[in-house]
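Holo prediction. Input below; ligand is beta-D-fucopyranose.
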Amino acid sequence: MTGTPRTFPADFLWGAATASYQIEGAVDEGGRGPSIWDTFSRTPGRVLNGDTGDVAADHYHRMADDVALMKELGLEAYRFSIAWPRIQPTGRGPANPEGVAFYSGLVDELLAAGIRPVATLYHWDLPQALEDEGGWTSRATAEAFGEYARLVAEALGDRVWLWTTLNEPWCSAYLGYASGVHAPGRTDGAAALAAVHHLNLAHGLAVRSIREVLGDDARVSVTLNLHVTRAATDAPEDRDAQAQVDAVANEVFLGPMLEGAYPERLLADTAHLTDWSFVHEGDLAVVQQPLTALGVNFYSTGRVRRFRGEAAVGVPRADGHGDSAFSPWVGCDLVEWLPQPGPHTAMGWNIEPQGLVDLLLGLHERYPALPLMVTENGAAFEDEVSPDGRVHDERRVAYVHDHLEAVGRAIDGGADVRGYFVWSLMDNFEWAYGYDRRFGVVRVDYDTLERTWKDSALWYREVVRTRTLVPVEVAATLPPVAAASEGSAPR
Ligand code: FCB
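Structure of the complex:
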């Protein structure tokens, strides 16, 4: 590292992100109803080591201490999600006062700490009762989501700074209903496409509800995990494979949400599976709503080519989205995913920050008036606690450093990137991988539930404090911080 470290704009927002099922625990408390992730995680064989979110990081009981920790970290914004089954235990009906009280308390605590609340309405914990009626394959779920959004806007709208309707609808639809590695674990490509549309519709209905309650100035966003994939060669068939993936992964959300149409190519590629009759007249006008910002989650990149072998033998699929005999790439039967060169994280995901530069610049070029935010970025590594009690997670520090450098380069190139949220504030339930994969900048000891700052947290605090890209080597030299619950002094 030479020269002066990069500086970020004065109004660039520094945050960290979590999600309800991944951290809260207390699944049977406060009148919460069961979600599809309770059912899925309790089904043998679905989650590594049989882990469930029953306790998770116990955030439900430690909320105030966790906010104190965020304050100590210097966070300017905190991206959390609201568990729909805490607000409506069966996904319908009046708001459950205890559920509202929990999030209201969180929001108040954040505001008192000077941290902006960024609330996601759906980060995958669908009320099980709605799944029993068809889940996202059913239009009624989208309509119920619009009502749920209205209840939450009424309860918290005076204090939430930015709303996010959905987190990564790609995962909800394709991992949930096509490859089945996420809840509800279904493996039906046509069902996944219906889920896609109902998630898009749910987004539009929720934006409308929020603006009906809070007015047109309400700040609303959506978070997508857009896939940065590249064609393995310039051969037309490989470029075509890439375009096919782009349609089913990215355009399927960007098209309806930002341009009011599904890509023709996707309709053609999936015509053998569905006639898309679940798209009703007028739906696309509902889906396409003005947004305050587009949230972008970024972790890694992919490489594809047209499969030239015998499909019956199996098409290699090194896409990083978990093992399943069923592909999440609906309609892409002859697309082959190639292993990516390293380095890789503990998820097996390759590390390629240039992908984030390309993604942000590409989005800006296409939607110049739409502000962007990196709403998730981070890495799982096999952390070790050193004899001195510290976690010297230099690879995580380097990962975040290099991706912040990427954000900076995108800003230099003209992209309107307004903020960055590291995934994650603390170790948590990593979906199908349970507690085995740690993404936190703060370590959670799952026996004692004690929180310990990893070097990445100490380093991130310096970045936020100085608004500069502090060199990686500095991390290990920063003095440790006592857990907030042990009464550490404010900075
Ligand atoms: C994203 C999810 C988030 C977390 C990270 C690692 O896909 O939104 O909950 O699991 O991946």
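The radius of gyration is 21 Å. That is the main takeaway for now.
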